[in-house]
Amino acid sequence: MPTRVAVFGAGSWGTAFALILADAGCKVALWARRPELVDAINTTHTNPDYLPDTALPDTIRATTDAAEAADGASIAVFSVSAQHLRRSLTAWAPALAADTVLVSLMKGVELSTGMLMSQVIADVTSAEPERIAVVSGPNLAGEIVQRQPAASVVACPDEQIARRLQAACHTPYFRPYTNTDVVGCELGGAVKNVIALAVGITDGMGLGDNTKAALMTRGLAETSRLGQAMGADPQTLGGLAGMGDLIATCSSPLSRNHTFGANLGRGMNVEQAAAAMTQTAEGVTSCTSVLGLARHHQVDMPIVETMSRIIHDGVSPQGAVKELMTRTTKPEHH
Known about the structure:
Number of domains: 2
Radius of gyration: 19 Å
Largest sheet: 8 strands, mixed
Structural class: alpha/beta
CATH superfamily of the largest domain: NAD(P)-binding Rossmann-like Domain
Strand content: 5-15%
CATH architecture of the largest domain: 3-Layer(aba) Sandwich
Strand order of the largest sheet: 3-2-1-4-5-6-7-8
């Protein structure tokens, strides 16, 4: 009997992950908020709003009913905006069985609490940590749905559950690795969005590869410092959920955060850059919450701090570059 999975969130990544699960042999219920999108998915087997050119397998069935989506599902996957998870999950939680494995696809930090997404899931559902997992890595939805080769990390404190999820999403084009370091995987995914904004800005300004390489490398150093302070394994941040995700998000025009930053670098203000986007760039909000974590743990994260000032304090990209380049010199490793 195929594994039944409920995917809550029919945006680009939620739909792409539903495709992966279906290709791996799972029966997938895809929850979407809008009835017209559900009807389109069920009748045309495409997601016209986010992935209009992708044919979805018949084993994906969409619904607006959370209880219907969760019925019989042994795995529930969440793919919504990080800042909307708490409210949405509060509505979905009563429909979830007590032994359902809860999986986050989200890469952000809750603004009001500084919680990672796995922590929000635990807070809302009271599920034990061993039943909560995350999937994170260099996984741009536009490439995934073309079934181009990709790899990712399935992280859960319970290795057996991690392996179970690994099997549920392993396909000839999607290769998941297991890990027990949930914090490291989540931090890698959240902070890289902020660094991608910075790299996008430099692209928009017409700066070159040296600048991008410096930002990516020093951004990874910032992530590693915060990860160490929060108990993450440094190897995680040097792997797919850390460096791998950082490279993909900072380099690809498919990245929402890179695109948002590039628009800022070309001269748009924050409101104009937001209006030009059709989907959420998580780094715009997460720069504030990641900076809050850094200050709480007394970790120096100058790129994150600079991005927060650009987004929220009106600092110009040109001024920000000058500020970063004229900071006091120091050893590379400290």
